[in-house]
Amino acid sequence: MSSIQKRMPSKAAALRMVITFMMGFSCGLPLLLTLTLLQAWMKALGVDLSLIGLMSLVGLPYTLKFLWAPFLDRYVPPFLGRRRGWLLMAQIGLVFAILILGWIDPARHAMMTAAAAFAVSFLSATQDIVVDAYRREHLPAEELGLGSAMYVNGYRLAMLFSSGGGLILADHFSFPIVYTIMALCMIPCAITTVLSPEPAAECGIPRTLREAVIDPLRDFFQKPQAILILSFILLYKIGDTMANAMTIPFYLELGFSKTEIGAVVKLFGFWATIAGSMIGGLWMLRIGTMKGLWVFGFFQAISTAGFSLLAYMGRITAMLAGVVALENLTGGMGTAAYSAYMAQMTNKRFTATQYALLSSLMGIPRVIASAPTGYLAQVTGWTAFFLWCTAAAVPGLVALYWIEKRPHESVV
To answer: Is the pLDDT of residue 351 over 90?
Structure first.
């Protein structure tokens, strides 16, 4: 029997992974209903492009979710417990909010559409907070890597279904019908919540709102390596993020057709990411999270350098497929380790608040580091640009080195 099989009791662990996957699907489904699908609907109705662009502001709750996360740590609903109670309310709310969004005419009622889309985003961000906390409290520490992989895979599959699948359905049905189908797809997720076990509050529940707001910050910054942890979270995937921000313009400039990009980068790349997440999660069962961060961080950097090789060799479809496969495999592995590490850095008493803070912080490089990438690519050229992105992975690994070197709480 392999060491993985020894570490992972078949029935109990498999059930935990199924629950985690379904919760990931539930979190990923609403995201693009207020972005890709809504934009396509508004464009089809001839809505002004400037208004379509402004509609992206309805996604603010995903960035600001740490503001109400303490309420979800502090207060316990009168049914199903602290985690499942809030989760079920968010999911039922999403069913109705998605239905309402789907049956408003965006061309005639722009403000009502924006309000409904904001409600979907708020409830979706609330669901994210609770699911992140549930995953941390429900999974044993050694299963957080595989659990993170299952969550990410469910999330990505739902995003593919709601965006790509939604657009395909919109060619055959009206957009209100498509949104109704998406709303109904939340029902199995709500059933999963009802049937899932409520994780035990091993470390207690904050007794006051002050404890729920102030104590999580105090608890985190009392860690001897708190600043290093924050630096690591900011820097670990910054090179990968910078490279991904410019890949589509890069492929087009090399001469790849939109069909090639769609088939190789989007479809083939999606399944490579799924495979990478699974490989990374299973591998971490053997080597642990910290070693996984080292190995996968190194692989991420090497895969980014592959874009430089593609830039040098030019338009070769087989080379594109190889680079995309490597980048998505290693990206999926790195994300699994990264998510598991963030979960392990939270105190179970304040899981929702601390994880919401860390995941909000994780999104900062996506905005700030991506902003100058176009200018950098213009100045340096594609080969040098992707080498710069490779080098940008080094500071994150340096931060990881110092985290391991200095005294800190143990991480599996």
So the answer is: no
User: Could you tell me how many residues make up the chain?
Assistant: 412
User: CB within 8 A of 63, min separation 6: which ones?
Assistant: 360, 363
Q: Give the pLDDT mean for 186-190.
A: 94
CB contact at 8 A, 166 and 287: no
Q: Residue 2 pLDDT > 70, yes or no? A: no
pTM score above 0.70: yes
Dmax (CA) of the chain: 63
Region for residue 349 given its phi and psi (left: phi exceeds 0; alpha: psi -120 to 50; beta: otherwise): alpha
| Cα distance between residue 182 and residue 96, in whole Å | 11
Residue 150 CB neighbours (<10 A): 27
Question: What is the C-alpha to C-alpha distance for residues 337 and 339, in angstroms, rounded to an integer?
Answer: 6
Q: Tally the C-alpha atoms within 13 A of residue 312's C-alpha that lie toward its C-beta.
A: 11
Tens-place pLDDT, residues 54-105: 676 787 888 788 888 888 888 889 888 888 999 999 999 999 999 999 999 8
Rounded Cα–Cα distance for residues 110 and 321 (Å) = 41
And the tokens for 168?
């395909």
Neighbouring residues of 137: CB distance < 8 A, sequence distance ≥ 6: 83, 199, 200, 201, 202, 348, 351
What is the identity of the amino acid at 328? N
Spatial contact of 182 and 162, defined as CB atoms under 8 Å apart:
yes
- Is 89 or 7 the better-scoring residue by pLDDT? 89
Task: Of 412, 355, 407, give the one whose Cα is nearest residue 233.
Answer: 355
